[in-house]
Amino acid sequence: MQVFAGTNRHEVVEGRVYRSAQPTGPQLNEYLAAHHIRTVVNLRGAATHIDEPRNAWYRAEVVASHDHNVSQEDITLSARLLPPPVEMKRLVDVLDHTEYPVLFHCKQGADRTGLASTLYLLLYTDATPAAARRQLWPVYGHIALGATAPMDEFFDRYEDWLADQKTTHSPDRLRHWLLDVYSPGPARSELIWLEKPPDPVPVGRPFAARIRAVNRSTETWEFKPGNQAGIHLQYGVGNEQFQMIYRGEAGLFRATVAPGESIDLVLAVPSLKTPGRYALAAEMIDGTGASVPVRQNSFVKFGDESVMTQVNVK
Known about the structure:
Elements lengths: L1 H4 L4 E4 L3 E4 L4 H11 L3 E4 L13 H12 L3 E4 L10 H13 L4 E4 L6 H13 L4 H4 L17 H15 L6 H11 L7 E7 L11 E9 L5 E3 L7 E8 L5 E7 L4 E3 L4 E8 L6 E11 L10 E2 L8 E7 L1
Parallel strand pairs: 2-5, 3-4, 3-5
Antiparallel strand pairs: 1-2, 6-7, 7-12, 8-11, 9-10, 9-13, 13-14, 13-15
């Protein structure tokens, strides 16, 4: 009933790890005191502009954590996406070094909180994967289907890796997989400038640049025609006022790039008619299964890096 009452509070490890939905300020004050919490792990990420009404939850949390002299750690996860490697590595680092007891929370206390609770049990106790994954059961409000299935897929990928290695779970093996092997699908790349824009670029003349995209993931990239189909490169030109002047795509053709292989892509830009300094930025995009562009997934969402270079137009 706590799921429907809004608190969704539960004990993961007695006296050490707790989980909850997003608490209000008064609820957090009460919980910190009652369980002697020393660290709050907020899995929703840090909010900017905390004086805005929509971010009142974050402001209340910061105030409560400060008043009780406890650590607040902000980890940015989405219940609808596989967790970014950089955020998962940071979560492990926090759990390795922070003071306990710890309170995990996201918004509903069901999906991201279930993932973090499962991870804790697998890394720091002798729980089996089957037992630990009960933290992602419907009793906590999590459903292993639809939009929030990536929380379960993360651990499916780990268990698939164990099977491929013909071995079984141990905390050390999970740590190795998470820190050195895990890749969120195809979303890991290395972008290398082969040819930057000429310097300067003449006013009123189109120009081009070239990038080599290296597949650093464990899955094959499939390039296809159409920006809503497969993997491709998205790039844009912005001015000094941070306005987007042009946006384009490269790699809208059929090609296959296996893990460790690369593909060279041309970034064609039409003429810029106003002298000045501009920025040319590029990132990899996964358009697989996206029926509309807004549902495309930038690799950056999963912790990948974009690249940028300056363009001088004279």
